[in-house]
Write a structure and sequence with these properties.
single chain; 372 residues; alpha/beta; Rossmann fold; 6-stranded parallel β-sheet; two-stranded antiparallel ribbon; 8 strands; 44% helix; globular; binds thiamine diphosphate; binds magnesium ion
Amino acid sequence: MPIRTVFKAQIDHLQILDENGVLDEKLAKDTLTDEQVVFLYEQMNICRHLDEVAFKLQRSGRMGTYPQNKGQEAAALGSGFAARKGKDWLVPCYRENAALFLHGLPMEKILLHWMGDERGNQIPEGVNVTPISIPIGTQMLHATGMAWAFKLRKEDRAVITYFGDGATSEGDFHEAMNFATTLNVPVVFFCQNNQWAISVPREIQMNSETVAQKAIAYGAHAIQVDGNDLFAVYKASKDALSRARSGGGVTLIEAVTYRLGDHTTADDARRYRDEAEVASWRAKDPIIRTRKYLEGKGLWNDTRQQEIEDRAKVIVAEVVRNAEGIESPSIDDIFDYTFETIDPELETQKRTLRTSSLGQKPEQAGLEAERR
Ligand SMILES: Cc1ncc(C[n+]2csc(CCOP(=O)(O)OP(=O)(O)O)c2C)c(N)n1
Ligand SMILES: [Mg+2]
């Protein structure tokens, strides 16, 4: 009996705007208008500035930790722009801030979150964004469940969930893909393959050549896109979202991009990354590429660049003022919002948390004050 091939697969890579800012006009048809590209380019600049300011806030002790989004703005904005504001839902991790802002998340929420203030996770009513997810991969299951609910309720909505290359090694990714595809729910899986999971490079993280091919095992649609190309990301996301909404199936999009900064401010990537690699990706920076394109079309110049940089400074300064100006929560909140009743042991902890002697008897509390 001859051996038959029972399955063959192929992964396509989509690029529309190349590294020199040259557009493939044919592929770009019905994607972004000039006006939209200008708008998204401005958003890139604002988010890049927020990133720089957040980094400095951490270095000067005004923020706990912060994961810069630097270099991944096109992936966030192209996909976020493809989702319908107020209808579709975004279920993020922590490296797609720009998409969340597009959908109405106030910028100070991100700063509050990383300042350790839980109010950063309080998403305003009407903003279809879930709180950013730090436990890697968990949000993909939430997204799948949400999409299942929308399907059962026959609501015209889709969900796009964001995660990194490292997250595709988590069981949650595989469970979410399996549930999503067997139930055929309106969800799009958007992987920002930024080549690194903290200090683990992609080739150590996985033996598969692409992230996208992981979709094939689950019978999902798969595409790899140049993640620093606004047009390609937008097109792939738009197609995937409309397919999801119409019951046409789940898509895994692999956006190939690069984490230009450290993993977070608690990391120093110079210890494990080759400077030549970083430099080669710096040349592919989505801001540089999009600017080249706009300048080539006569839609951008130095004056406009100065204007947007000035505007970004004003916006971000106000965001920082708002985040730092918010009244501190009471130390009692951690107890009062966690426990229904406070037993004597918790009462002790609650009283002594006001000093640095957590858990000690109240009469022992205040030792530090005495020492001082
Ligand atoms: C469940 C879980 N395991 C481990 C961690 C620690 N951790 C934080 S970020 C990270 C790497 C994530 O890499 P990737 O998914 O590629 O996202 P990136 O940070 O590159 O955007 C790890 C292991 C975590 N937050 N959650
Ligand atoms: Mg990564």
